[in-house]
Each structure stands twice: as C-alpha cells, then as structure tokens.
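Shipment paperwork, digital attachment
Item: protein structure file
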Amino acid sequence: MNDPDLKTDCRHVRWDRPCAPHKQRGRVCSTCDEYSPVRHRVLVVKLAATGDVLRTTSFLHAIHTTWPQAKVTWITRPSAMGLFHGNTLVDEVLSTDDAVTAARLATETFDVVLCPDADPDAAALAAMARGRQRRGYVRDAEGRVVALGSGAARWLHMGLSDAAKKANRATYQHLVAEVLGLDPKLVREPILEPSVGDTEWARSFVHALPVRGRLVGLNTGAGGRWAYKQWTREHQESFVRLVTDAGDSVLLLGGPEEVERHRQLLAAAGGRPVFDGGNHNSFGRFAALVDRCGAIVTSDSLATHVAAARKVPAVVLFGPTSSHEIELYGRGTKVVPPGLDCLCCYLPRCDRVPHCQASIEPNVVFAAVQQWLAASPVPRS
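Attachment content:
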C-alpha cells in the first residue's frame, strides 16, 4: 500500500533509505518544509577528458534557468566522477562503466537529453536514453553521429575541419550553448567545490611551508594527448628563477605523469622557495591548492578550468589547441607564441624546431603573472 503522505516527486527521495532531511533533521513528508518537487528531468551526457567535462559544468546555471526545478543526471566516465563532489546543481552522476547505467537509460524517461559533443560513444548513449526531447547529438542505426540543429551542425563541422577550427573566434561556452539551444548569457564559470576537509588540508599544507611573498602555482603538465601543450622544462626552470628572484614562491601542481618533472624542477631550484603540491591529489584537493595561489601558470588543460571555477587568475599557454575557444572570464591572460602560422593544428606531435611551446619565453609569462598578482586580492585564508 502506498503512503499517501509520501511525496515521491521530491528530489530528496532515495527509495532504498531515508532521505537526508529525514535522517539529519527528522523531517517527515506530510509536514516537511524542505519538500522540493521535481518539475523537469534533465540528462546530460558528457564524457571526454576531465578538463572538458569540468568546463561543461559552466552550463548548469543555464540548464536550471531553462528548466526550473530540474533534477539533473549526468553520465560521464569513471575518471571524471570526482569532479561532481559538492556540486549542488547535479543530483546524480552515472558511470559509463556501470551496467546499472544502461538499465536506468532503458527504464527511465527524461524530459530532455543533452549531448553537447559529437563523441560517438556519448551520442550513442544519448540515442539510447528515453527522452521526450533531445538536443545536441545522437548516433543513428548506421553508426553515424547526427547533429540535432544548426548549432550542433556548426560544432560538428568545426570538429572535422582544421580550417574551420583555426578560423573560429567563438568560445566553447558560446558554441556549445548554441548546440544545446541555451542562452549564452546564462553561462557561468565551471563548478568545482572542494570540501571543508579539502580546504582545511590545503590551508594547513601551505601554512607549513616557508612561503615567501605571494604563492604562484605552476601547473607543470598538460595531459597526454598533445605533447606540445606542455611548456618545456628549461622554460619552467627559468620561470621559477624569475618568480623567486622577485621575492615570491612557486607551488608545483601536476598529476601522476609529472612526478619526474617535479623532481627535476625541485633539484634545479637550489634552495629557492619552490614547493611540490603533490601528484596524486583528488580534484577537491587540487582545487583547494589552486585557491591558495595568487595566480597560476598552466597549459590549456584541466587546471585552466579549475582556476576559472575557483576564480583564480590564470596565465594560460597555447600552442596546438585553440586559444579562442577558452573562456577565462576576465581573470586571465592568454599567451600565444608569436610568428607561427601553424598554431591551432591539433597535432599530437610535430617536427617544427623550436615547437610552439618552446617559443613562449619565460619573461613574457612572468610579466603577465606580475600584473595579476598586483591586481588580485589576497588568496583565500
């Protein structure tokens, strides 16, 4: 028998256990003042690299404005699921590697299915999902990715044409808003919320360091797809000297692939105030470390979008990828190597000597950082 007082349309319902308002505050459905009825069910299918997933969270405000009182479900790869911890605009995250995800798509009906990229795997999931409306892309019975609208067709064409990609001057946020039929004016910064524990850990970690002056984050890696997104070790060493000679300190930021690079930079520092932030941090701890910096230097990578989410100035170095697609929200500087007609090539490697990242001089990056340090408030205490 159904309980007539049970509000089964509430976003807090968990079905197999008491809801959080009941468990934590003793609320009961008949008199609950935290009742939050779901008016729209929205499915977002976004896989790709973690940085790409994070920057796509910038559309969540627009989604909730377009579909008020929405329950948002997001499908992504397991590697990106940690990005959503603490994100109150996403109600649940499903993994592509979980068989339950397929069962959910086969049994639930969504008001709208949003697939922002022409990723064949994502498009297949978007086609499989039961949705009253679909925006972006689906995959058809012959394995083709189908664009659902003119904005999606434009983005698909750009992904297949080097010339169109290089000629583009619009940001990812503007382009994908058109793909999804959202108002670009409603797009905000990405969302990445470190927990209270992450924030306290980073505060204690940095407090224990003999920091001198302001702390500048140097994101040393760039992911494995494009080798020349990473700034050269020699230029990173020179940049470290410039920062420390000016009376400030450097915090090395990176992932597991940068363990050896950090070891080399620390060895070359020769007693200067250069510190290793670690190579195995969770997304939350990484974000909390970025919070401690007055500015960061990074390639076009995850750290760019982490800085945007945390509203920390970023000096971003470009080469094989498009500088025009990246949105810095008025808190950053794009550094593009001068005199090269091959930029935005999206080649994994090239034979040009010096290559694009080797052409970005440390003094140019240092000058940009100095400007942001002078203009920026003191990092979070």
